[in-house]
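Review session, final week

We close the course with one last complete record, chosen because it touches almost every idea we covered. It is DUF3137 domain-containing protein, a protein from Mesomycoplasma ovipneumoniae with 298 residues. Go through it on your own first, then we will talk.
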Amino acid sequence: MTNRIPDEVYAPAILRPEDAYKTAFSILDKRIDYLGFNNDPYNEIRISRNEIRQFTTATTFHWRGNRDTSWPEISSVEPLKELLIDKKFHVVFTNVHWEWEEIRQNPNKIRREDITIEHKISTGILKIDTSILREKAFDFKHSRADNSLYIEDNVELENEEFIEPVDPDWRADNSLYIEDNVELENEEFIELVDPDSNDKLKTRKMYTPDAMELSLERYYDRDGVKVSDFSIHSSENAIYITYRCDPNFMSHVFRISHIIDPDHFNNYFINYFFNGFLADAYSLYYLLSLIYPTLYLD
């Protein structure tokens, strides 16, 4: 069954998937150490449900609020996983599963009772601990990145007609941000990212002309990226990136039961390894790389 693929390739991915993720990140960027599950209950870097609700925007899961729609509720949160950037910035991330109900009028005129539609969707949240920056840290957000860039063929939606423009700040606390957007020189960058901040001077230092050009290149270079509808917030001592993702993002499991015959093994493994492990690792790296050009983490 395995004579076409060397043991050193398939064995770690099947038997030790966390080692496979670690290897993938070591190939993508030597600055990133993949640490795996964050199981220590006393670890200071955590993500609370309040943080998830605060920074996950309605646009991330295309929630359309009206009197006949319930609030999206968190049904479950996956165990945290952890990264380390440049040996000093701790990063934790997880998948979040949501549910909500929508009541619609029955299109069938003969039957008058309303139709209840149950929605289930998965998002991710990534948190970068920036406490080490001390006074250099400041609050900012990218308020349009999740609306204007990503196309929906990256992620399959359960209800296509449910995709409508919505208020991207359905529960976010906007008290930290001023009404006026930050005035920068690059109009294309402003239109795409629409940065908001309570400190224009620090924002200008963060988004130099070169940083804006590099950021635009990263925004548009999304081939192979499996996440969509992202939003970036810096609040106090952390940067939060929320995004739309598959339910098993960064948590793939090789299922022997799916193997039909020896010939099928190789095709299944290749799809599992490249479209699962490597694509997920690259997608998470892509999200982190959106911050790199700004030199915010220097």
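Two points worth writing down before the exam:
Residues 1-5, 145-180 have pLDDT under 50 and may be disordered.
The CA atoms of residues 54 and 242 lie 10 Å apart.
Good luck, everyone.
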